[in-house]
Amino acid sequence: MSDVLHDLNVESLRKEFPILSQNVHGRPLVFLDSAASAQKPRTVIDSMRFVMESQYANVHRGLHYMSEKTSDAYEAVRDKVAGFLNAASRDEIVFTRNGTESINLVAYTYGRTALKPGDAVAVSAMEHHANLVPWQMLRDAHGTELRIVEITDSGEIDFESLERVFADGKVKLLAVTHMSNVLGSYTPVERLAAFAHERGARILIDGCQAIVHRKVDVQAMGADFYVFSGHKLYGPTGIGVLYGRAELLEAMPPFLGGGDMIEHVSFEKSRWAKPPHRFEAGTPAIIETIGLGAAIDFVNEIGFPAIAAHERALTEHALSVLGNIEGLRILGQAQDRGGVVSFTMRDVHAHDIATLLDRQGIAVRAGQHCAEPLMGRMGVTSTARASFALYTLPREIDALAEGLLRIQRMFA
Amino acid sequence: MNADPYQALVMERSRKPLFARRPHGTDAEGEGRNRMCGDAVHVFLARAGMHVGHESEGCAILLASADLMAEAVAGKSRDEVFELQRDFLAMVKTGQEKPALGALNALAGLASFPARQRCATLPWDALSEALNNG
After folding, report:
1. Domains of chain A by residue range
2. Residue A332 pLDDT more than 80?
3. Percent of chain A at pLDDT above 90?
4. What is the CATH number of domain A46-300?
5. CA A389 → CA A120, A297, B21, B40, distances in Å?
6. DSSP label at B113?
7. Residues in chain B where the model's pLDDT stays below 70
8. Residue A308: other Cβ atoms inside 10 A
9. Model's pTM, two decimal places?
10. Active site residues of A
């Protein structure tokens, strides 16, 4: 691992995350649940405190100093996100509450106007509930069809199934994850986008997991919509992003009505503001948005090449040490996979694993991971999941493996 | 209060349950499901004599709790079972053991693990359903 630590000084980076020095049940915290939500660096915490202490008012409303300063800081994050995703324009960046809300926004507005009853939406079998349930709701309310693209046993998109799902030409939107929150598989989004576009469909990509681990270029990958949450990217909760291609956002009606999303209002009717403000009704999450900006600066400063190399080495290390534990089954063997490892252990339930690891100071997630249908597809009812971040150390994975062996002895 | 919910009795009964069966004369059934993890317990009840059996799929806490419950309620009246359930729920929340709970006190350590209390109470929900169905 020495070459990896050479690229990324993890020990010194960890000092930027105040929570990582905490003890849990008398042991140093080993936090292996970053895929659920990542810990926050001091720069994010400080940026939010700074806004509240020295530069806060509502945005887009006041003609006074504080409102102007806050509006500038808020809108500067839109530029930052546009640059981060390589969007063609800042107007393609809509702030939402989280990735889930971004998908619901698209399902509700694009889904009910651009899609017609009888059109089909296709999702993969490894979607988070956030990229499944909104399309079920659209189906029930609007008469669209919902189709499932199968995955292979290794946890990759099954392109034969994809062909079959698209064969009758009814699919008008492919909504697919960029990285599975359970299996860690990356999907070949460029290929999927080209596939959808060749057949006259659009593509929405759920980037909640992938955005943390690799450089995303929405133009290069051909995304029509790309969504992510701030809190997994070392930013605060309550702020998410929807990227939408300008022509698509232009044609979409608002999601929520209220202040800030209108151009003109009379008692009879209203005229909508242009995107992105059309989709940002009411006072937005100003402080959280500014926190997201600080998180993006933090990640950019470290750089994705170093982050990706570190996480690749961690994942290989994890697959190797966990793979050596007898009776432990790792779900999914995708060629292209990231720092999320779900597993089951013979004779020990995932919840027992999580509770017993917790008592050793090790935090993992256990359960269905908001992906209940995928659990059925993989033939399990629940799994334990360890997930890694830029602050994860190889020795924390070793601690996990030792903890698992201890639990195994207890259940033997 | 013992802070460890994985006591020897819990481990033993999760591995080798004594009541994982459908009792003779079963005339009511109930089911409990934990949506968070997919765990499930199915309770069989023969009201005459309050004979309870279970079919459980889940963690050690759920399996042991279902089995210890079946043992604890055997031969009791309906009212006594509901009283035992109230005492059990209070014990799991507070960690305060109670002589009347007998072997069920082995689960008192769950007071320190709020996220896992549901695993222990699920079989009791299923039994309530069976009693109310009956």
Report:
1. 2-31+303-411, 46-300
2. yes
3. 89
4. 3.40.640.10
5. 36, 16, 46, 33
6. -
7. 1-2, 134
8. 18
9. 0.91
10. 370
- What homologous superfamily does CATH list for A2-31+303-411? Aspartate Aminotransferase, domain 1 (3.90.1150.10)
Nearest-by-Cβ selection for A382 from B38, B61, B115: B38
Task: Note the helical H segments in A324-379.
Answer: 350-358, 372-378
Interface contact A351-B38, CB threshold 8 A: no
Alpha helices (runs of H) in A24-155, residue ranges in sequence order: 42-54, 65-85, 99-113, 133-142
Which domains can be identified in chain B, with CATH numbers? 8-133 (3.90.1010.10)
State pLDDT tens for residues A148-195: 999 999 999 999 999 999 999 999 999 999 999 999 999 999 999 999
For A28-80, the pLDDT digits (tens) are 999 999 999 999 999 999 999 999 999 999 998 778 999 999 999 999 999 99
Task: For residue A382, list chain B residues with Cβ-Cβ distance below 8 A.
Answer: 37-39
Q: Determine phi and psi for A75, rounding to 5 degrees.
A: -70, -25
Q: Which two tokens stand for residue A278?
A: 């059309």
On chain B, the residues whose CB falls within 8 A of the CB of A368 are 36-38
Q: Does B36 touch chain A (CB under 8 A)?
A: yes
One fold for A2-31+303-411 and A46-300: no
* ipTM for this prediction: 0.82
Residue A333 burial (10 A CB sphere; 0-12, 13-18, 19+): middle
How crowded is residue A100: how many other Cβ atoms within 10 Å of its Cβ? Answer: 21
Residue pointed to by tokens 């029509």: A224
Contacts of B6 in chain A (CB under 8 A): 352, 356, 410
Cα distance between residue B115 and residue B117, in whole Å = 6
User: Given this model, what pLDDT does residue B25 score?
Assistant: 94
**pLDDT tens digit string along A382-411?**
899 999 999 999 999 999 999 999 999 999
Torsion of CA A405, A406, A412, B2, to 10 degrees: -150
Q: How near does any CA of chain A get to the CA of B38, in Å?
A: 6
Confidence band, pLDDT 50/70/90 cuts, at residue A7:
low
